[in-house]
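Handoff note, outgoing to incoming analyst
You'll be picking up this chain. Sequence as last confirmed:
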Amino acid sequence: MAIREGSRPGGRSARVQESVHQAVRDLLAEHSSPNFTVPMIAARAGVTASTIYRRWGDLSQLLADVAVERLRPDGEPLDTGHVETDLRAWAEQFFEEMTSAPGRAMVRDVMACAAQGGWQSQCSSYTQTQIQIILDRATQRGERAPDLELIMDRFVAPVMYRILFQSKPLTLEGARTLIDSCLLERKAT
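Most recent structure output, in case you need it:
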């Protein structure tokens, strides 16, 4: 999906972060719910619990950090050569990733400490960057494209709302209808 932005910390800091993140990912894979503790993570990562508390503050902040890292796209969205098919392919992938069991869990982890860390802003930024890449391509090709905010409001927001607040998730067909409604309102180039 998107290009990873910003540089990661180097040296020991990067090794500690990767070790702790890997320990969390391993424990999440082994347990049906995050019923583990900071000392368990520290032991698995080969660091002290105080290192984790100093860097992340508490377990919820650490889980949010791991979730945000996992939500960060790996590359640019698919370039099919046309804005309609680009947006539909991106929307379907976004929908499938966010509504999967791991995706819903990551969204919940991020939202669990949203007020403390601003994690939700990073996730929104990742999504907006992906969409903007598609819209910029459309502009370069001379195509009319919907507005970024329209896509956020009419596609991303309903998908995320259903994940967070409704027991019955949106269907793939419903997600396709949402992105198609965005495509109906294209701005002139």
